[in-house]
Amino acid sequence: MDRQQISRLAHAHHPIAAPLADGSVARLLDRAMAGTEQGRALELGCGEGAWLLRALAAGPGWRAVGVDLDAAALTRARESAAALGVARRIGLHHLDAREFTAEEPFDLVLCVGATHAFGGLLPTLAAARELLAPGGRLLVGEGFWQREPSGAALDGLGAAREDFADLATTTERVLAEGWTPVFGLVSTEQEWDEYEFAWTGSLAEWALDHPDHPDAAAAREAADRHRTGWLHGYRGTLGFVTYLLRRD
């Protein structure tokens, strides 16, 4: 069972692929689009387009572009856009986000929970800088260490200590790259727990509902492994911050 299929199933009931509740998503988009009746938004690693579809629903004068490697997720994004009546205002590209280029810059660039596509936060900032219009904004979400990670936490994440830093250091790195945080949200423990239970629960439920499917056992195994890594490893250790950034 490939990683893309697992992710699609796991996010069936939590389409935002990050530990953010609906209210937090709404607040972040409201600040990111504030004072702009029309504009162009780009999401790098858009999946099924949840962020962009919400942005288009909130901003009738906005247009959007999404980029992702998961063709099936993009198909669902197109279907959702048609159902919402915003299909003419969104373009979706089956492409590695690192290879995306555009003739016109964007007023808002988003990459929340997908910085791994670029190899981390700092390469994501560098890529976004090339795509953002002067005065534009970047909405980027990244993990950070809430406390020193134990061996169990690192094993549960399949991560190394140097993959993340604490919140202060992460923010200082952003500033050092010439970006200024103008807003931000740190996900709460409740948001994390809801996200992880939704992730593991959706995957496990799919396996229960499709016991004869050839991928059922793999889906259940992935859900169990993820749940164990979270509850016995990184719960309370890995945090998540979403910054709204502008260039100096």
For the residues shown, what is the average pLDDT? 96
What CATH architecture label applies? 3-Layer(aba) Sandwich
Number of strands: 7
Quaternary state reads single chain
CA-based gyration radius: 18 Å
CATH class: Alpha Beta
**Strand neighbour order, sheet with most strands:** 3-2-1-4-5-7-6
Overall description:
With 248 residues, the chain is α/β, with parallel strands linked by helices. It has one domain (3-236, 240-244): Rossmann fold, CATH 3.40.50. Helix content is 44%, strand content 24%. It has 9 helices and 7 strands; from the N terminus they run ααβαβαββαβααβααβ. It has a 7-stranded mixed sheet, sandwiched between helices. Helix 1 crosses helix 8, helix 2 (22-32) packs across helix 3 (50-58) and helix 6 (151-157) runs antiparallel to helix 9.
Key words describing this protein structure:
Rossmann fold; 44% helix; Methyltransferase domain-containing protein; 248 residues; Methyltransf_12; 7-stranded mixed beta sheet; 9 helices; methyltransferase activity; alpha/beta; globular
SSE topology sketch:
Elements: H1 3-10, H2 22-32, E1 38-44, H3 50-58, E2 61-68, H4 71-84, E3 90-94, E4 106-112, H5 121-129, E5 132-145, H6 151-157, H7 167-176, E6 179-186, H8 189-209, H9 216-234, E7 238-247
Parallel strand pairs: 1-2, 1-4, 2-3, 4-5
Antiparallel strand pairs: 5-7, 6-7
